[in-house]
Amino acid sequence: MTVPALSGTGGQDPGVLLADPAPAVGADNPVMEAVTWIAEHFIGLFQAAAESFTGLFTGILPLLIVLLTAMYAVTTWIGEERVTRAVRWSGKFALTRYTLMPMLAMIMLTNPMAYTFGRFLPERHKPAFYDSAVSFCHPVTSFFPHANAGEIFVWTGVSAGVLAVNPDAYAKLAVMYFLVGIVVIFLRGMVTQWITGVMIGRSPDKDRFAEFDADYAAGRIQGVDR
Q: What are the structural domain ranges in the chain?
């Protein structure tokens, strides 16, 4: 038996008409749509943060802990006195003072304790050493992320694009980032040393710096007995 089409339905099955979903409440309300969008993205923000937090626990945190443990073990094995002698030797020459010394400071003591190595230098060289060390905070993380874990996002941000486009070039980028960092800290150290020397020469307290140099030559260094 054929069911006649209802008038005004255009010949469509009345069952299909009854099955049409009812319009969502507030579907045409821009205020309601905005509130819904805010609610969805608000919780989405915390979901993304939770995923990132989980990634840290399974990725970078174990690496940082292992690197820190290794550095402490190496320092203990070598001995604090030998490390101190090596640092003091590296501070005698401009080339090592603004390359090797900041590297050792960052890798072994990490940021911000690395700057305490400046106590092994004359007062006139301390500003330049600080400039070199602080400028190495980011390049060092390409191989030693424990040295400046609080700012590891700088290196991960630099390398993210390379990982997405050409993962095989990641190691090359890390090497270049590290080497360019060494060149930059050496240049910054030399320029800052020159600026410091000019400022000391023009200062009315330049005699005081001469006394500092005499104290350093006599071995009167903070926390160190010659």
A: 80-217
